[in-house]
UniProtKB/TrEMBL annotation:
Domain ABC transporter, residue spans: 5-234
SMART domains (alphabetical): AAA
Keyword Nucleotide-binding assigned: yes
Stated name of the protein: ABC transporter ATP-binding protein
Species of origin: Parasediminibacterium paludis
């Protein structure tokens, strides 16, 4: 299966600040791809490069098997995106907004198509109401309806639940699931909320300070039968080398400073103890973390936004 998005060694430098560093990942057709990281991790910068809003410093981006540099217009006709808050006209109605944006996009629409779009995002009963009377969640759903007016194959949503109340978050979550399951769209959704990504994503990428920490299938990452084990050693470089050359290589998730993280069944921990001794790894501590949430908070570089992750 040809990837919908293929990013290779992508970097973005703003003067002395490196927002994205050597980032590579793949989004396959049909994925709900969760792009997870704390605020400032580089998610929005990466998405803006995907949407050609800013240019990469280095690296390559392909969408639908075509280089973004040379096939920009052809690619973007197949993409719908809401970057941060949707840019809608608050003194126009929902119906008028969709009709206007369709015209600007060169899409010919009928009254039925507009109403179908509004029905899809749960706004058909408010079609004639001005957007200034809408909640932030309703504006988000209208923005998604506008992004879908040209029937794109790929939908990109940057922090779509930011600032929403619990009902608004649930509405966006259900809409993402409908786009994937019913409409067979490929969806990329960025968030700093672990719980939200867990409920919608089929695959997940976690980044911190612009660098990839882990990428994998959501079912495996969120499997409650698996335990995150944090190992602290006296020599992390030696320990990492020994583990990657052993049968434990497949379980290693990340290595940071003096900490190594493995994901494995809890029943395997006693054998891990024995093998660490046999590999001459000097262990200061070995601690089960029990959940991806614990792991996520440990491997990101600071824990100052703990509340944001767990809301």
């Amino acid at each position: 299966m040809q990837p919908v998005i293929k990013v290779s060694h992508l970097s973005k430098q703003f003067k002395d600040f490196k927002a994205v560093s050597d980032l590579s990942f793949t989004v396959n057709q049909g994925d709900v791809y969760g792009f997870l990281g704390q605020n400032g991790a580089g998610k929005s910068t990466t998405i803006r490069m995907l949407m050609t809003l800013i240019e990469p410093t280095s690296g390559d981006i392909e969408l639908f098997g075509m280089p973004l540099k040379t096939h920009r217009n052809e690619i973007l006709h197949q993409v719908g995106a809401v970057i941060e808050k949707p840019d809608v006209y608050k003194y126009l109605s929902a119906y008028e907004n969709i009709k206007l944006f369709a015209k600007l996009s060169g899409v010919k629409v009928t009254d039925k198509l507009i109403m179908d779009q509004l029905e899809m995002v749960g706004l058909a009963t408010r079609a004639k109401d001005t957007v200034k009377t809408f909640s932030q969640g309703m504006k988000q759903r209208l923005g998604i309806g506008i992004a879908l007016i040209h029937n794109p194959q790929l939908i990109v949503l940057d922090e779509p639940t930011n600032g929403l109340d619990p009902q608004g978050i649930a509405d966006i979550r259900n809409l993402i699931l409908r786009l994937s399951r019913d409409m067979k769209k490929t969806v990329v959704v960025s968030s700093h909320l672990l719980n939200e990504i867990e409920q919608v994503a089929t695959r997940v990428l976690i980044i911190d300070k612009g660098k990839k920490l882990i990428e994998g299938n959501a079912n495996e990452l969120f499997d409650p039968a698996q335990t995150i084990v944090e190992i602290v050693t006296t020599n992390n470089a030696f320990a990492s080398q020994q583990l990657t050359q052993s049968s434990w290589q497949q379980y290693v998730q990340a290595s940071r400073n003096s900490n190594i993280f493995l994901k494995l069944n809890r029943q395997a921990i006693p054998q891990l103890h024995k093998d660490l001794v046999n590999l001459n790894i000097e262990v200061i501590s070995l601690q089960p973390r029990h959940s991806l949430e614990d792991y996520f908070l440990q491997i990101t570089s600071t824990n100052q936004h703990v509340q944001a992750y767990t809301n």
